Structure formats: structure tokens, C-alpha cells
Backbone:
């Protein structure tokens, strides 16, 4: 199954309603040689979707914390946010991620809550109110709630980048 077929089957490009993709569903893609990150990046590049990673299980919308919602246009960042928590620790990574500057995660003050086993990436297809900040980065910000168009289960093994402990 190709990525676009998977997206159509699970209705990941919908503008209303919420689709759900389980770890078992993702095995269909993985058996075809695709990763979860490939799927997420494809959604961003071909559907103008944005991604919000979290260990929290949201129902139908993402609500601002401290006045803002943060989303990404990179699957790697959304996966990072769905597995790693900065509660009691400091996570550091660049805003400018590219082939020449790949993602590297630095963790200061690692604790038992920093690394989770599972999380979710929420797909947002109604992206008009988001602002790219800092401009040219992977980060997008919005100041009011955003509807979720898909919820995708993530597991720790989906994050495949170097981790440095400070």
C-alpha cells in the first residue's frame, strides 16, 4: 500500500471529523517499507497538514497551554514531542532542521518522566490561523483551539535520532 492510498483509506486528509490510526494500522505501512515519520512528512508536504505531538490523549481539539498551540511541519519533531517530556528536564534541538543539519536531541536533567513509551501525533488540516515562528523554521503557533483531523499512535521506536545527555 502506498502512502496516498493509506491516507485515503484512513481519511487523514479530511477537513472535518477525526480519524484514528493505531500502532497495528501503522504496521501495514511498515511492512511496505515506510516509517511513521514518512507518513507524517508526506501529510505535511502534500496536504499542508501540521502536526502536534503529545503524550496526552485529546478527544477532538487541541487547546492552548500558556496561551499557544505549537505544531510542526516535520514528522520527526512531532514524534519527539509525543515521546519526550520537558517536565523536570530540558529538551534542546534546533529550529533549523535539514539534510545538512539533522535533528539531534539534547536532554538536561533526565528523569523518570522524560522519556515515554507511547504518545500521539495529532494531524491538523485546517492550518490557516497558524503562524510560522520563527519564520522559516518547523514551528507553527496558534492562539486559539484547533480541531484535530487525525490521531496517530506513536511508540518510542518511531524516534530514530541521536540523543545526547548533558
Residues:
Amino acid at each position: 500500500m502506498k502512502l496516498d492510498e493509506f491516507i485515503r483509506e484512513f481519511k487523514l486528509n479530511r477537513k472535518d471529523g477525526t480519524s484514528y490510526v493505531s500502532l497495528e494500522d501503522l504496521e501495514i505501512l511498515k511492512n511496505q517499507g515506510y516509517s511513521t515519520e514518512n507518513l507524517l512528512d508526506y501529510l505535511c508536504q502534500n496536504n499542508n497538514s501540521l502536526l502536534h505531538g503529545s503524550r496526552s490523549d485529546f478527544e477532538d481539539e487541541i487547546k492552548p497551554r500558556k496561551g499557544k498551540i505549537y505544531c510542526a511541519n516535520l514528522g520527526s519533531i512531532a514524534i519527539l514531542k509525543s515521546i519526550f517530556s520537558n517536565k523536570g528536564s530540558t529538551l534542546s534541538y534546533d529550529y533549523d532542521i535539514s539534510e545538512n543539519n539533522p535533528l539531534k536531541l539534547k536532554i538536561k536533567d533526565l528523569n523518570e518522566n522524560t522519556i515515554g513509551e507511547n504518545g500521539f501525533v495529532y494531524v491538523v488540516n485546517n492550518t490557516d490561523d497558524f503562524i510560522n515562528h520563527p519564520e522559516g523554521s518547523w514551528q507553527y503557533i496558534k492562539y486559539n483551539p484547533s480541531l484535530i483531523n487525525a490521531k496517530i499512535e506513536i511508540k518510542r521506536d518511531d524516534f530514530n535520532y541521536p540523543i545526547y545527555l548533558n
